[in-house]
Amino acid sequence: MPRAATTTDAFNAIAEPRRREIIDVLRGGRAHAVGELVKRLRIPQPTVSKHLGVLRRVGIVSVSRHGQRRMYRLNAEELKPVHDWVKIYERFWTHQLDRIKERAERKATERTADKG
Amino acid sequence: MPRAATTTDAFNAIAEPRRREIIDVLRGGRAHAVGELVKRLRIPQPTVSKHLGVLRRVGIVSVSRHGQRRMYRLNAEELKPVHDWVKIYERFWTHQLDRIKERAERKATERTADKG
DNA sequence: CGATTATATTCCCATATGGGAATATGTCAA
DNA sequence: TTGACATATTCCCATATGGGAATATAATCG
Predict the structure, then answer these.
(1) Could you give the CA distance from residue A81 to residue B88 in angstroms, rounded to a whole number?
(2) Interface pTM (ipTM) of the complex?
(3) In angstroms, what separates the C-alpha of B26 from chain A's closest C-alpha?
(4) What residue segments make up the domains of chain B, in order of their start?
(5) Nucleotides of D under 7 A from a protein CB
């Protein structure tokens, strides 16, 4: 089995830095034409189109035709699974107070560990 | 250019679901032997070892020898870049009140857009 | 119509992948 | 030493990748 396709899910899609850059530009909520992204990011047009294709298949962006242009808009909710997963680890690098919770929870976990 | 190596950064490393599972098991803070992970996740030992190798090269886990076993421990801080990036999008799927902030910020962004 | 602009698609290629199977390495115990 | 156990490594392969270059598609304009 090779590596999972980039279009498998958000995790795979955002692994590519240029796709994250595209997402960042689209963050404002406003739809952007491909040409705008090309200019902003200084990435060749076919490359941008391909990356947008991946993001679209995953559902992270959606397109609409507007005359000659295709307007891409962010569907940020598709990033929620990534946030949900990584958020759990937030406490590992945040402040003092959370460390207490962390330790307490670890104890509880160890107590119930290796039951299966 | 092929896809970036899985060992490039945390984004690439966590794209693989089994590696996320491993991280999840290590979440308690306690170090785990490879064999424990094999049993818990029902994944062949060589596969687990390879995934641990990737995670180790990225710095997400660290190893220590303890007799015959190698104990793997989570270094969750390495996940912070992922959290930092995705956290910005949290407001897109959270409650009502944040939507106000969102709209306000969008207006401000649009005002200063396309200056470069 | 033809020309221009905007975007997508195709073709090419070097490359890393994840899994399976087999094997190597390392460590303990008798 | 031998054998059992724990883990890592190697070899194999089908496959998707991202980029470059070239080209196709599609819409607008004159």
Answers:
(1) 14
(2) 0.86
(3) 11
(4) 10-76, 80-111
(5) 5-10, 14-23, 26-28
